[in-house]
Amino acid sequence: MTKTTLDWDEAASCRSLDPDLFFPVAGETVYMTQIEAIRQVCAACPAASRCLEWALATGEPDGIWAGTTPGERRRLRAARRNPGPATDPAHSRARKADAA
C-alpha cells in the first residue's frame, strides 16, 4: 500500500508522546508556557508540513498542530482567504509612506 496524505500521522514525531501535551485543558495562555517544548518536537518532525495543512484544511479549532496554536491557525486561514496587498510588508510600508 502506498502512503497517502491521510497517513501523515504515522510519521509524526508526536505519535509516541502524551496527547495531553498538545491539548491542554486551559486556554491559549497555557499553550504559551508549553509552546517552546512542543515547537521543538514539531520542528524536528518529518510530518509537520502535512500536519499543518491538515489542521488548516479541516479547521481544527483545538490543540497544537505543527507547532501552531488555535489563534495562529485562525490567522493563517484568514490570510489564505484574504490574500492581497495588506499582507505584503512592502505594500504596508509604501502605504505608510504615502500617508505621511
Overview of the structural elements:
The chain is 50% helix and 0% strand. With 100 residues, it is mostly helical. The protein starts with 27 loop residues before the first helix and ends with a helix. Residues 1-5 have low confidence and may be disordered.
Instruction: Write the element-wise H/E pattern from the N-terminal end onward.
Output: HHHH
Rg from C-alpha positions? 17 Å
Profile the largest sheet. Answer: none
**What's the overall geometry?**
globular
User: Helix content range of the residues, please?
Assistant: 40-55%
SS-derived structural category: mainly alpha
Strand content: under 5%
Please give the number of β-strands. Answer: 0
User: How far is the first residue's CA from the last residue's CA?
Assistant: 61 Å
Rounded average pLDDT: 79
Count of helices? 4
Query: Low-confidence segments, ≥5 residues, pLDDT <50?
Result: 1-5
Keywords:
disordered N terminus; single chain; about 50% helix; globular; mainly alpha; 4 helices; about 100 residues
Give the gist of this structure.
With 100 residues, the chain is mostly helical. The protein is globular.
Give a topology summary.
Layout: H1 28-43, H2 48-58, H3 70-81, H4 89-99
